[in-house]
Design brief:
alpha/beta; Spore Coat Polysaccharide Biosynthesis Protein SpsA, Chain A; 2 domains; globular
């Protein structure tokens, strides 16, 4: 259970918790922490959790923490995965507002100030995102980053059109969706989708989060966590039982269930949902995206042909929008 304690600020400004999970990022962790230290919004706490690093990451963080009481450092002896690390950080956070910072990224100096000002002025919003500023391993600007919007058919309910790592959350909104579920390469995406069920998320178009692209990043080519998160949200939106119902996640089994459930999912989409934010165009895009990814990962040749035929019959527009989305990502010039 997470404590909902809120320390009082002498200045009256809300405390902001900057949460940094880290694993083997000795080359970049100091830059990440310093970008949090250098925020123009001064009333921050910086929580760093080292998830079993085997390089000098821990020693670097300890040195920085010794010189700045705003930094709190914890570590585990063995790697437990980013979802566990994020949950530990949320449990320790004391801020009225909470944001993430990946250990190889940075924040612009006025990121926290800008997002806090927005949430202060807009109480109905649960969280606010910003745009990304991409850089390479050496910190040089890139022409474009890896975050690309799905296009006109994107579903704001099913596929957020912003980079989830940039979000600043209201504490209570984040706690409603806590804990993160241990999807491989998708637990944060799943968290955002569940936060959005309880309140609207805004986006500031200014590029205030600095995303670093480098060779040491984990490949996402074989991961299905994001798609399972979208599928889980589709099930919930249409009043079906959530496919993620325990702490043990078997991605292959979940993909197989999604594939088997497609008649049920097609019927639910045709019948519509009660959520007034949802348009059927958005829903069909998300469902076709999920089914095509799933059958590509685990389907037989016959199942692939069957799913393509069914998607074309139910929503040819969404089918071609998803294919176009994939082609744009594949053909985009390297950053």
């Amino acid at each position: 259970m997470v404590r909902d304690s809120r320390p009082q600020s002498g200045s009256g400004a809300p405390l902001v918790s900057v949460l940094i999970p880290v694993f083997n990022q000795e080359a970049y962790i100091a830059d990440a922490i310093r970008s949090a230290q250098d925020q123009t919004y001064r009333h921050v706490e910086i929580l760093v959790h080292d998830d079993g690093s085997t390089d000098r990451t821990g020693a670097i963080v300890e040195e920085l923490a010794a010189a700045d009481p705003r930094i709190r450092f914890t570590r585990t002896a063995h790697n437990q995965g980013v979802a566990v690390a994020r949950n530990l950080l949320i449990a320790a956070a004391r801020g009225t507002y909470i944001c993430w910072l990946d250990a190889d990224d940075m924040m612009a100096a006025d990121k926290v100030m800008t997002q806090c000002a927005f949430l202060d002025a807009n109480p109905p919003f649960a969280a606010v995102a910003t745009a990304l500023r991409p850089i390479d391993a050496a910190g040089r600007p890139l022409r474009k980053g890896g975050h690309r919007r799905p296009g006109d058919a994107s579903a704001r309910i099913f596929v957020p059109a912003f980079a989830t790592v940039t979000l600043l959350y209201r504490r209570e909104a984040l706690l409603r969706a806590y804990p993160l579920r241990p999807l491989r390469d998708g637990s944060d995406f799943d968290l955002v989708l569940r936060v959005a069920e309880g309140g609207e998320i805004a986006e500031i178009r200014e590029a205030l989060y600095i995303r670093r692209y480098h060779a040491g990043q984990m490949s996402r080519a074989a991961a299905s966590g994001h798609i399972i998160a979208v599928a889980s949200n589709i099930y919930r939106t249409f009043g079906l039982a959530d496919i993620i119902d325990d702490a043990t996640i078997n991605e292959a089994a979940l993909l197989r269930r999604i594939l088997s459930d497609r008649p049920l999912l097609f019927a639910a989409m045709r019948n519509g949902a009660s959520d007034p934010r949802l348009t059927m165009n958005e829903g069909w895009f998300a469902l076709v995206l999920v089914l095509l990814h799933t059958v590509r990962r685990i389907g037989t040749l016959g199942e692939r042909l069957g799913v393509i035929t069914e998607c074309l019959r139910h929503s040819p527009g969404a089918f071609f929008q998803v294919v176009g989305f994939w082609l744009r990502r594949r053909l985009a010039p390297p950053s």
